[in-house]
Amino acid sequence: EKTGKVLGEFCRCYKEQYGVALFNSVRYEIEGNGGPQPQLLHRKLPLEDHVIYSGNIFQYIEENKKWRNRFCVVPHNYGLVLYENKLAYERELPPRVLVNSAGYKILTSVDQYLELVNNSLPGVTPKSGHSPILKCPTDFPLILWHPYARHYYFCVMTGKEQEKWRAVFQDCVRHCNNGISEDSRVEAPAFTDAVRMYRQSKEQYGTWDMLCGNETQVLSNLVMEELLPELRSTIGPRLKGKAPERQRTWIQISDAVYRMVYEQTNAQYEAAMARCEQERPQLESTIRTDMDQIITSKEHLASKIRAFVLPKAEVCVRNHVQPYISSILEALMTPTSQGFAEVREVFFKEVTDMNMNVVNEGGLEKLVEYMEKLSHLAFHPVKMQSCYEKMDQLKLEGLQQRFDVSSTSVFKQRAQIHMRQQMDDAVYTFETLLHQELGKLQGKDDLCKSIQRILERVLKKFDYDSSTVRKKFFREALLQITIPFLLKKLAPTCKGELAKFQELIFEDFASFILVENTYEEVVLQSVMKDIMQAVKEAAVQRKHNLYRDSMVMHNSDPNLHLLGEGIPIDWGEEYPGHSEPEPAADRRRRAKQVVSVIQDDEGALPYEMGTEALLQPSSPEPPERQEPDPGMPPSSPGGVQEIREALAQESIGHADVPSESSVQHATPASPQPRAHVPPEAEVPHGTPASPAPGAESPSPAAGPACHQPSDRETGEDTTPSGGECSPLQPTGTTESGEGVQTEF
């Protein structure tokens, strides 16, 4: 009922905003975009067929209260895919768990987690001396916390591993949070504006932390924001058991409700989109035919609203916004510019080190090896971490409360995404220019000088593009902070009077001109002049290496952008100069992974699968296994001592011999067809993992193929799964080999 009510109101907003966004898109197409031309090339498919990271990690399984060793793979779309072990991954067996990490927070302390859990269910706090909801067998936990969905518990053995996994997990969250495609000039702005209008209709202004993930996830968060407090007040007092058990039950209930909401939201939103798409040809035809009349009508409406609103808005800006613009800008500029400077430094260092190593170690062959690594530098979470963490310094101090900014995380993540994009643009431009030069070079000296010369050219282009990107980011962030504040301030005196302007819009143009949107544009104009001036002054003073707007870098490489349109460079295929040929499967596995594991050799990882000690029983679970007593605290049978004993046994035993159950799984020459997945194991995101249709089955003679999880496997495909979710029934990791649990 709640989902239907919220989605009904939202879909009405979406239909209105769709017409406005379509008009703006067609007008933009006709009038042109303007703006400075970027100097660096942009790679279209930066991570196609690549794996970001893979390695072993301990996961806490709530259903049997045990810590289990899992092989975790992060594919190109940044989903988290957990397999039984490395062998299961290589043999293309279905993964155990799939996680889309949008909306999650990465915690490295059990105390942090317990504080969030205690706050999620007010009045339910474990007494001192009682077992908490979670115990970790090592000092290095990694916990994925979500305000609505289920939580995930991991741990590793060393601080170095924890930092590496934390960087990987944070990259996954950053990428998945940015789930609304910016390539769409109609659907994306229509959606985000509809969300904003809906929240403003509920008197909720300012930034929103849960505007993360794909459209269905965002709408599910919108529903849960209203639904969860009602559920908590209704169900919370009825929960039984000790405090940790009540907390655990509440997390399961919240997760089950979130899944139900997701399924309903997905269906209703897709239906609304389909209706808008059906009407699009007629709307677009009207826009193109009557473009001049629509623009004239809109300008007439804007002039009337401006005469009414602008005097009040200017007073509000002068008294409440203008004095703080420079402070907000300085708070944004310092960490952001430090982050971009670090991107430049990391890029410079990597290329310089590569140049020295190529000269010292062997010319072209070594160049190919290093270029394969350099080409994905932007997607290396560990190497990029020093750039990203500069944004952790972003503090708005008292400004945050004054302007109703709930959190700075929105701005941090946006800046970090810009950093990653600028790094990839710089790397791609460098490798394109170097690839063009290689045929003309003779000897190491020529190669060394050419690399240095190209590096200097790319750094100049980077400085120019970096300035452009940062100035745009600062303007957008200032608007994002100040506009909601102004709208909230002006609402009591202006919003009630807007209805009288509706009669100024011709009925034929009512789908493309909205009074509310025009009013917001007038408010934006009232503060835009001050924001532009503040950013311009910062550039004139050369603060943080910003360029003036009048500085236009003419394209010194007129053919460079034509080069960028060519076929992507595959260094390993074009220059196969290995002295010793290596097996194709091994070379593919190594070359396709952006971040190496701690030890890439089989059997050398601290938790490499090869014994049943940690995974007792391995898989599947015996059918006669009894359900754990819900009143028992979560024990840690895989404690430090037991883990160490298991590792000791593993080092003595035959680590490379797969367990009996793994051999049974691996016996068929081709992957077995997947058994029916029970409803509680279905994913709200899409169809569970299965071998791709038409894919060749790995034969035993050829060796196991390295399985590359698809978008569907990592929860980014939002196709309805067809299974029904049982009401308020918590769903857990499927411990039988027949199914797979897929997650948000």
TrEMBL record:
PANTHER family: NIBAN FAMILY MEMBER, PROTEIN NIBAN 2
Organism: Sakesphorus luctuosus
Native organism taxonomy: Eukaryota, Metazoa, Chordata, Craniata, Vertebrata
Origin superkingdom: Eukaryota
InterPro entries: Niban-like, Niban_1/2/3_dom, PH_domain
UniProt keyword Coiled coil, yes or no: yes
Swiss-Prot/TrEMBL keywords: Coiled coil
Coiled coil: 259-286
Record carries keyword Coiled coil: yes
Comp. bias intervals (Polar residues): 659-669
Name recorded for this polypeptide: NIBL1 protein
Family, similarity comment: Belongs to the Niban family.
Bias type Basic and acidic residues, positions: 575-586
Membrane spanning residue stretches: none
Start-end of Low complexity biased regions: 688-705
PH domain span: 50-174
Region (Disordered): 573-593, 614-744
